[in-house]
Specification:
Blueprint lengths: L4 E6 L9 H18 L3 E4 L13 H9 L6 E4 L2 E2 L5 H14 L4 E6 L4 H6 L7 H16 L5 E4 L4 E5 L12 E5 L4 H9 L2 E4 L5 H20 L9 E9 L3 H21 L13 H8 L6 E4 L1 H15 L4 E5 L6 H19 L4 H12 L5 H12 L2 H12 L21
Parallel strand pairs: 1-2, 1-12, 2-3, 3-5, 4-5, 5-8, 8-9, 9-10, 10-11, 10-12
Antiparallel strand pairs: 6-7
Length: about 400
């Protein structure tokens, strides 16, 4: 497979208590930072309740992010299709693609929060079927199909056709996948990529080894193909120079996020509250899995283990959170770009080989020194200067400033 891409996924998950206006600005700062650091994709979601997830329109947020970034792809992670008329979704994605100059990725899902669906009076039993139906219509619209009509129990189109098409001839699609086969099945049916959000839970992690087979089976059934390079797996991390520092920076925030959001707000049945920060870190601090609070080496090992578990995927997606303060969080994303990305993708292998070759083949380069001495020997003044320099007392020789190389632990 080709190199692993790296992305950032902003749900967002912001603890209640801070100025929401400033939170939006800090989220845009994050998009700008990961673009500058060379991450490949930036995703943000759509939610309408819980008080923690406050972006209601990923298209609007990403349009703002497009003005502050240059090369990073911008994905809706995700638009909850049962909440919208498909024509309006297609129109917004076209506009985002133009405003980002062809960097949009259309990610969709059935809607993650039952509280959102309840407010909109949508039966959760119909959400996945509605996502499926809407995706088929949106695909036709974005392809520029001639005017067509469509009628079903929840929306109607009359002689519909987009008056403006995307910049990209084939805008990338992705579907959210949790634990059930639904997302993977839709990916195979509609030949899309996959955003595996379920990898953040223990149940979702356990399901990953068999998930891709659902996409392949569905693709074969519908005469399509799917490619693992379009599979994105979400992981969570906070990285620092040492495990102790990472735990000190993010432990308290991770503890409260788990207890107050996952258990206290979502009331996920497979989770229980931690009694202490130490218990939380002891369970999730440095273990290989989808959550890493530790060093670059810890994350490298976890990503490689995830590749083994899944059989291979195209993009590792870091889940954005507020476990640490903004300064430490920014350093974490920076360290991943500096040490983890190049190590996972073998970008330093040739450097190390060149360094090792020079060290191990010193005899091959001694002739260069012999050549210099030969030229000195041909010039009487040069010989005299060298002899005088060798005879001079040590204290008379000019002092050279020591070279201090950064004391950085190799990620390898």
């Amino acid at each position: 497979m080709s190199r692993v891409k790296f992305a950032c996924f902003l749900a967002p998950h912001h603890p209640i208590g801070e100025n929401p206006t400033l939170q939006f600005q800090r989220d845009l700062d994050l998009a700008e930072q990961v673009d500058r650091l060379g991450y490949d994709e930036f995703w943000c979601g759509e939610h309408h309740s819980t008080g923690w997830e406050v972006i209601a329109s990923p298209e609007m947020f990403l349009a703002a992010a497009a003005q502050r970034t240059h090369r990073i792809k911008l994905g809706t992670g995700v638009v909850s299709l049962p909440y919208h008329h498909p024509f309006n979704v297609a129109q917004r994605m076209v506009q985002l693609d133009h405003m980002s100059q062809g960097r949009a990725i259309f990610g969709s899902g059935p809607g993650a929060l039952p509280s959102d669906a309840y407010m909109l009076n949508i039966d959760p039993m119909v959400q996945r079927d509605r996502q499926d139906e809407a995706m088929g219509v949106i695909r036709r619209l974005l392809a520029g199909e001639e005017r067509f009509s469509y009628e079903c129990e929840w929306f109607t189109l009359n002689d519909a056709r987009l008056q403006l098409l995307p910049v990209q001839e084939d805008m990338p699609f992705a579907v959210a996948s949790m634990i059930s086969p639904s997302g993977m099945t839709l990916a195979g049916k509609h030949r899309t990529g996959v955003l595996s959000i379920g990898s953040m839970s223990s149940a979702g992690l356990d399901a990953l080894p068999t998930q891709w087979s659902f996409a392949e089976e569905s693709a074969e059934k519908h005469g399509n193909t799917v490619d693992r390079k379009d599979w994105r797996v979400v992981m969570s991390w906070h990285i620092a120079e040492t495990r102790e520092q990472a735990r000190a920076e993010a432990g308290e925030g991770f503890f409260h996020w788990h207890n107050e959001y996952n258990v206290g707000t979502l009331m996920r049945p497979d989770l229980t509250k931690f009694d202490s920060v130490q218990q939380a870190l002891g369970t999730n601090g440095d273990t290989v899995g989808s959550t890493v609070i530790g060093t670059p080496d810890d994350l490298i090992n976890a990503i490689r283990a995830m590749q083994e578990i899944t059989g291979g995927f195209g993009t590792v997606v870091g889940f954005a959170h507020d476990w640490a303060n903004p300064e430490a969080t920014a350093r974490s994303w920076d360290m991943v770009a500096r040490y983890v990305i190049p190590e996972v993708n073998g970008m330093l292998d040739a450097y190390r080989d060149s360094n090792r070759h020079v060290i191990e083949h010193r005899d091959s380069f001694d002739r260069a020194g012999d050549a210099i001495m030969a030229k000195i020997a041909e010039n009487e003044n040069a010989v005299k200067a060298m002899e005088e320099g060798a005879a001079a007392p040590q204290e008379d020789k000019p002092a050279l400033a020591p070279h201090h190389a950064p004391d950085l632990k190799s990620a390898g």
